[in-house]
Amino acid sequence: MSKVYNTEIISVGTELLLGHVTNTDARDISEMLSKIGINVKYHTVVGDNPEKLRDCVEIAKKRADIIITTGGLGPTCDDLTKQVLASAFGLELVENKAEMDTIYEYIKGGKKVTPNNYIQAMLPEGCTVFHNDWGTAPGCAFEAEGKTVLMFPGPPKECVAMFKALGLPYLKKLSDEQIVSHSIHMFGIGESAVDYMFRDEMNKMSNPTMAPYAKECDCLLQITAKAKSEEEAEKMIAPVMEEAKARLGDYVYGIDVDTIEQRVIELLKAKHMCFAAAESCTGGDIARRFTDIPGASAVFKGGVVSYTNEVKAKVLGIDPALIEEKGAVSYEVAKEMAERVKELCGADIGVSVTGLAGPDGDGVHEVGTVFVGLAADKTYVRELHLGTYRTRSFIRQMSGNHVYDMMRRYLCGLDIL
User: Residue of 36, 203, 227, 340 with fewest CB within 10 Å of its CB?
Assistant: First the structure.
């Protein structure tokens, strides 16, 4: 964009302040905006109180060019976002007949239509309506007093889908320039290391730009360019992307993919191979993450959650004497788990994970000690020490990422350990 836009997201809902609901809307919208080169400067959370919301809007008007709200568009008495925003910009709320009819058709099949449902169809005069194909409350956008205002419903499944389908295209029209962004996703290297590697280049760049971002268990390097056309922006990005990928090397697992398991499913399909998983401390999370992806059944045979030594012995067939001698958290048991599940399920690849996710240790290993295995033509085992201070969820997520990284490396012919 030729102009730099400061953006503020105001999330409305007392449930957010009480901690009853996690504010994922602001996170997801910020992530989508970053991909089109719009920086979010402020996140504000306010309860269902019209006076406090009005105060937040007045502050946002002074420091932001784009104001995005989530929540408070429903039919209940505390859903007052539209009323407050319209008043703050001197606009009247008017009935939108098309939305009124849609709300009636949406609701009538399942329950009685009460009059308060129609409040959702009262929208700021002259606004662009964002029809809600995922619920009842429409969103909207308008421009006033030099500001661009967009409003979205609070439920994440509605908010995110509506913002992606309607909010992003609306914002892209603010400029005659096209913004293109691609993300290089990496595992095994942290945000600070990537920043250090590219710091000199990033400090000198203005268009395209590069910026590293940390995710919970991996990171990405985002490259963004602005140009008169998408094709021109892509040409500007291409050499920067190639140079960055070359320098990052084996750490790169994919471009513009959300997760490492998505990359693994692509590789398995391309090679017509399948895998099976034996899990202990991850409790089935590796299988769950993989089967969340449509099409996983083509390359995933199944899994065994061998959480106890008894299941490791009776289901996977691991010698109880080995478990007794080496311990369930060991190189040897991880190796056996991977090999046995591969054979049991008739898979090309068997993977395993056994370790201590905490909070208790086993008297031998510290919390965060995990062994992950991969059995194919050979068997490989990684020994991980993920930190005694880490949460159970982090250790489980990171262990799964290591399993997927080993699979990715094996399928790409890279060093696995």
Answer: 203
**Could you tell me if 341 and 352 are in contact, meaning their C-beta atoms sit under 8 angstroms apart?**
yes
The SS3 assignment for 168 reads: helix
Output the pLDDT for position 3. Answer: 67
Task: For residue 115, count other CB atoms closer than 10 A to its CB.
Answer: 7
Tens of pLDDT, residues 68-125: 999 999 877 767 999 999 999 999 999 888 888 776 665 555 556 566 667 888 999 9
Q: Are 355 and 307 in contact (CB under 8 A)?
A: no
Any residues with CB less than 8 A from the CB of 105 and at least 6 apart, and which?
none
Cα 86 to Cα 60, 123, 143, 155, 265: the distances in Å are: 14, 8, 11, 21, 47
User: Any alpha helices (H) in 76-190, and if so which ranges?
Assistant: 81-88, 97-108, 156-162, 168-172
Backbone Cα Rg of the chain: 26
Mean pLDDT, residues 397-404 = 97
- Distance from the Cα of residue 334 to its chain's centroid: 30
CA 206 vs CA 64, 201, 237, 241, 406: distances in Å:
22, 10, 12, 15, 37
Measured distance CA(296)–CA(300) in Å, rounded? 6
Q: Which residues contact 292 (CB under 8 A, 6 or more apart)?
A: none
pLDDT digit string, tens, across residues 290-329: 999 999 999 999 999 999 999 999 999 999 999 999 999 9
Q: Using alpha carbons, list the distances in angstroms from residue 92 to 95, 115, 130.
A: 10, 20, 18
| Nearest-angstrom CA–CA distance, 45 and 282 | 34
Q: Where are the beta strands (DSSP E) in 163-297?
A: 178-186, 209-214, 219-227, 252-255, 275-279
* Residue 64: HSE in the Cβ half-sphere, 13 Å Cα cutoff: 25
Measured CA to CA, the distance from residue 296 to residue 269 in angstroms comes to 9
Average pLDDT estimate for 159-173: 94
Per the structure block, which two tokens stand in for 307? 């959480």
CA nearest neighbour of 397 among 279, 276, 297: 279
Non-local (6+) Cβ contacts of 367 within 8 A are 356, 357, 358, 359, 360, 361, 388, 390, 395
E strand or H helix at 290: helix 285-291
pLDDT in tens, 204-252: 998 999 999 888 899 999 999 988 888 999 999 999 999 999 999 999 9
Q: What is the pLDDT averaged over residues 340-364?
A: 93
